[in-house]
């Protein structure tokens, strides 16, 4: 199917990209629940979702590896669309227009706006931090290679990255619901021409040129 079909819908994501994104979303939820269960005794009851404490501890790092690999495959696909441009810096200076939905006053936006791009790099940093610290604190296979001080520091880094990631994903989900039509992009793969014109005009022009 072509990128712009006869119903004037524009393809935004391929089936492979969408499948990958939803695997990341699912593994993220499993990781947040199992991670919080291991983080504080008051949340230990969450281990019931994973078959008890030992199973939670076994499964958490393996699910983490799946999320990390899927995320980086996805991130490599999205990388070039997330590089900041001069227009993005101007967009950031006009945040009040963004918040008040005065999109007509903003510079034309490419595939992603500056907010999405900044969030993208926060996600990349959190993923790298979680992966590196997660390896250091993975008792079964790697922790014995590191001194106790490094393991302690890695535990703190792991918790900080997880907290930032959870907050970033709450913002991400809020934005996905706030900008009507975005969820359809990730669920069905297509957006309407009107949506693209309103929210991502430079990207719309690029698709039309193609
Ligand atoms: C769990 C609920 C989630 C929902 C409802 C959701 C929704 C969406 C939607 C609607 C888009 C398309 C935005 C657009 O095309 O303008 C998108 C893109 C994206 N999502 Fe999610 N998402 C979720 C979880 C996640 C998670 C857990 C991650 C990674 C940790 C993630 C990473 C991304 C990335 C990297 C993009 C592309 C945006 C960019 O490259 O700047 N999402 N998501």
Structural class: mainly alpha
Assembly classification: single chain
Work out the helix count: 9
The largest sheet, given as strand count, sense and whether it forms a barrel, is: 2 strands, antiparallel
The radius of gyration is 20 Å
Strand content: under 5%
How do the strands of the widest beta sheet line up side by side? 1-2
Bound molecules: protoporphyrin IX containing FE
Average pLDDT score: 95
Provide structural commentary.
This protein is an all-alpha fold and 210 residues long. 67% of the residues lie in helices and 3% in strands. The chain is built from nine helices and two strands; from the N terminus they run βαααααααβαα. A two-stranded antiparallel sheet has the order 1-2. The two termini are 14 Å apart. The model has no long low-confidence stretch (mean pLDDT 95). The structure holds protoporphyrin IX containing FE.
Give a brief outline of the structure.
The chain is mostly helical and 210 residues long. Helix content is 67%, strand content 3%. The protein has helices spanning 15-39, 53-78, 86-93, 95-99, 114-136, 148-178, 182-188, 193-199, 201-209; strands at 9-11, 190-192.
Give short descriptive properties of this protein.
binds protoporphyrin IX containing FE; 67% helix; two-stranded antiparallel sheet; mainly alpha; 2 strands; 210 residues; elongated
């Amino acid at each position: 199917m072509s990128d712009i079909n006869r119903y004037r819908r524009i393809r935004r994501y391929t089936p492979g990209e969408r499948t990958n994104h939803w695997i990341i979303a699912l593994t993220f939820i499993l990781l947040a629940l199992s991670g919080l269960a291991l983080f504080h005794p008051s949340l230990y009851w969450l281990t019931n979702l994973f078959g008890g404490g030992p199973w939670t501890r076994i499964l958490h790092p393996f699910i983490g590896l799946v999320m990390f690999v899927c995320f980086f495959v996805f991130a490599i696909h999205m990388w070039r669309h997330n590089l900041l441009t001069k227009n993005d810096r101007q967009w950031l200076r006009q945040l009040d227009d963004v918040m008040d939905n005065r999109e007509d006053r903003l510079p034309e936006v490419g595939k992603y706006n500056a907010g999405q791009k900044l969030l993208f790099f926060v996600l990349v940093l959190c993923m790298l931090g979680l992966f590196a610290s997660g390896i250091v604190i993975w008792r079964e296979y790697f922790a014995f290679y590191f001194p106790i001080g490094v393991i302690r520091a890695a535990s703190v880094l792991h918790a900080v990255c997880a907290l930032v990631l959870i907050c970033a994903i709450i913002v991400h989900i809020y934005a996905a619901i706030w900008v009507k039509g975005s969820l359809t992009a990730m669920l069905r793969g297509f957006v309407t021409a009107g949506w693209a014109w309103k929210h991502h005009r430079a990207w719309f022009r690029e698709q039309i040129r193609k």
